[in-house]
Design a protein that fits this description.
Elements lengths: L1 H29 L2 H33 L5 H30 L5 H32 L5 H4 L1
């Protein structure tokens, strides 16, 4: 069951963060002031999905890996710690700050820039872990694996 839960929870977390990131970029580029406020107020509600999804992904991944080690497994472990740290220390506080802030202030713009950067880093690390997960599970083989 963990082998089915792990990718589903990871996908839910990835898509939730991706939706938040894309909606922020699009609303900043093309939206009105009111739409920016609406999107920023909606994003903390996504944490209701994001936090449990990432917790389940991490817990199930650690359980599946057990005591095994190796380049891919160790990389996934290190990345998960960075993703969790960014989520707890940057993304979550930023989401709450921005949901209560005024979009036209310098502080809002700075916090949003940091949030977008942390989100992009997290999405990249998640994608790398997905790639390694596929290779570990045998779903995809790299050219090196094919010999």
């Amino acid at each position: 069951m963990l082998r089915q839960l792990h990718p589903l929870a990871g996908l839910a977390g990835f898509l939730t963060l991706l939706a938040s990131w894309i909606s922020t970029v699009l609303v900043e580029l093309f939206g009105s002031h009111e739409l920016v406020v609406t999107v920023k107020q909606a994003i903390p509600w996504g944490l209701i999905v994001l936090i449990p999804a990432l917790a389940l992904t991490g817990a199930s991944g650690f359980s599946i890996a057990g005591n095994r080690s190796g380049t891919r497994i160790d990389g996934k472990r290190r990345r998960m710690l960075v993703i969790a740290g960014l989520g707890l220390l940057v993304l979550t506080p930023s989401a709450f700050y921005l949901s209560a802030g005024t979009p036209s202030t310098t502080a809002f713009t700075l916090v949003q820039a940091v949030e977008l950067l942390a989100g992009a880093v997290s999405l990249t690390l998640m994608a790398m872990s997905v790639r390694d997960g596929f290779e570990l599970s045998g779903r995809f083989r790299t050219n090196a694996d094919r010999g």
